[in-house]
Amino acid sequence: MKSKKYLDELTYEIIGSAIEVHKFMGRGLLESVYHQCLKEELLHRKINFLTEMKIPVLYKGKTLDIDFRCDLFVENCIVV
């Protein structure tokens, strides 16, 4: 389990990354553009993440034929 301090610092870095992307790229672009830029910013900051991660949907104990998709799963603990 990650400490609150670690999660707070990581959250600060993620938000800082998003702000940096927005300041550099400006507003009004497609989500896909911001997504790619944010991935680059996280890599630049040496923050590990998975992208477009599939999460199975369970209903009453049964796995359905559909998945949730997580845009970014950062350091195995924060969903963005």
Question: What secondary-structure arrangement, pairings included, does this model have?
Answer:
Layout: H1 4-25, H2 31-44, E1 49-59, E2 62-74, E3 78-79
Antiparallel strand pairs: 1-2, 2-3
Helix pairs in contact: 1-2
SSE class: alpha+beta
Roughly what is the average pLDDT, rounded to an integer?
A: 97
Radius of gyration: 15 Å
What kind of sheet is the major sheet? 3 strands, antiparallel
In DSSP terms (H or I, runs of 4 or more residues), the helix count works out at 2
Outline type: flat
Q: How many E strands?
A: 3
Query: Strand order, biggest sheet?
Result: 1-2-3
Provide the low-confidence segments as ranges. Answer: none
Sketch the topology as an H/E string, one letter per element: HHEEE
What is the rounded distance between the termini? 19 Å
Instruction: Give the fraction of residues assigned to helices.
Output: 40-55%
Structure write-up:
The protein is of the alpha+beta class. It has one domain (4-79). Helices cover 45% and strands 32% of the residues. It contains two helices and three strands, in the order H-H-E-E-E. It has helices spanning 4-25, 31-44, and strands at 49-59, 62-74, 78-79. The chain has a three-stranded antiparallel β-sheet with strand order 1-2-3. Strand 2 and strand 3 (78-79) form a beta hairpin. Helix 1 crosses helix 2. The protein is flat. It starts with a helix and ends with a strand.
